[in-house]
Amino acid sequence: MKDALILGIESSCDETSCSIVKNGTTELATIISSQIDIHKDYGGVVPEIASREHVKNITIVLEECLTEAKVTMDDIDAIAITYGPGLIGSLLIGLEAAKTLAFIHNKPLIPVHHIAGHIYANNLVRPLTFPLIALVVSGGHTELIYMKENYSFEKLGGTKDDAVGECYDKVARVLDIPYPGGPLLDKMAHEGNATYDLPTPLNDDSYDFSFSGLKSAVINLVHNEQQRGNTIRKEDLAASFQKVVVDVITKKTIRALNNYQVKNLIVAGGVAANRGLRESLTTECQKEGIDLTFPPMKYCTDNAAMIATAGFYAYQKGDRADLSLNAKSSVPLS
Amino acid sequence: MKTFYIDTSSSYLFAGISVDKQLKNEIKLKLDKELSSFTLPKIEELFKEVEIEPKDIDKILVVKGPGSFTGIRIGVTIAKTFAWSLKKEITTLSSLEAMATISSTDYDYLVPMIDARRGYVYGAIYDRQGTQILKDQYIKKETLEIAMEDLPGKCVIITNDILTSKFPTISYDAQIEEIIARFENRESQNPHAINPEYLKLTEAEENKDK
Lengths: 334, 210
Description:
The complex is a heterodimer of chains A (334) and B (210).
Chain A: E1 5-10, E2 15-22, E3 26-34, H1 36-40, H2 47-69, E4 78-84, H3 88-105, E5 109-113, H4 114-120, E6 132-137, E7 142-147, E8 154-158, H5 164-174, H6 181-189, H7 212-227, H8 234-259, E9 264-268, H9 275-288, E10 291-293, H10 297-300, H11 305-317
Parallel strand pairs in A: 1-4, 4-5, 6-9, 9-10
Antiparallel strand pairs in A: 1-2, 2-3, 6-7, 7-8
Helix pairs in contact in A: 2-3, 4-11, 5-6, 5-7, 6-8, 8-9
Chain B: E1 2-7, E2 12-19, E3 22-30, H1 35-50, E4 59-63, H2 69-85, E5 89-93, H3 95-99, E6 109-115, E7 120-127, E8 132-140, H4 141-149, E9 155-159, E10 169-171, H5 176-183, H6 203-207
């Protein structure tokens, strides 16, 4: 088979990224322009500012990527683009750039779901083995996906409200930990003990999650302790919060693996970097004889390498979009 | 010179291709929320109809705003990607300059206005040759009207929004051939440096230090 070079573009939140991947396995170049320092001042991503930054960065990122990969647009076989879910204004910049490149260079346009990208980031580590369960945990997503074969997705469950990463950031804010608080909260959790009593959210037989109640419980707890004049032991509260989150995610993930008789688990998304979650899943998967894959840290955050990789399999499957492809803030993976 | 013009700063898509200042074909289409879906398909049709390939274009003329934030970004992203990737010349004009481009008129002063809500507009004052009298700005509509009262000649508001005024008002219909002829020789810029002109900070930035 002839090699296929896919140029991927990702701009769904606050990272402008472009990547060129060969045959869904070999990364030639990936450029990521992160806006994290800009949004830090606002305690979270400001959509309008994110959109403005994407426009400034998009062609610079594209150029750097082609230069680093030492290829030209003539060498590219198809353009893969994140069309959703994400911030609509942010998505549109990558999308219009991708559509323009497809138009002026007469290349196929491959629509890629952001979550499919996160899952396929693992393919850059080693080829996915099917069937598998993918646990997607990030600032925007908390989902369990069953994959029977390449590019087939069945959603088993997802969050009913806040995504797990979003919950981490909000709890971090309550504890006065600077944005993005998730990673720091994880670090603090390792320095404390789970001594605070917090409710386990949506502790049922479904594969769904709910984190807004847990977030409220933390806020109430902090408030009540302050009223009583008690000092919050931040490390202990972080440990207590993390234990509840990690336990419920681990429990539901292991149950999905057992019920579907699947021996492969891959983890994807920004929260895949969470040490507490890594430790818990590693222990449980060892017990159950499950093959577990975590993406390397560089693929945990948003990047276009994962989009170009997923795009290759979508391309092989025959997925194509025309120039009327629109961005979607929320869209199921199917 | 083959020039491609694109303006998505309002709810309309205005686009055209001209060869040596003669307009070959144009698009004037109200797209509203469909702007992101249909701008490129319509542009593809435009190129097909005039039988010109994107690579044959010499210069891109893009409206950089002010106007709808999302709208401006669509046009600017398309234009800068096009120009960068095919190594084409690119230059910009403001939406208000485009609106004040009328080939012949009885009015002495043209006052383009775009509704920016809460009593504000994006506005400017130009004379009929296109010379700027009052620069493009985010301004209280009343303030702009006071400036109009002092003008030593007949003036007219040009807008596609519903704005009531004691001054005569005409609706904006892009004269694309005239716009290209007037602005295509403007000095080219580096495509990477082509960015929207919002004339207004984001709300988050405005409220930051409050």
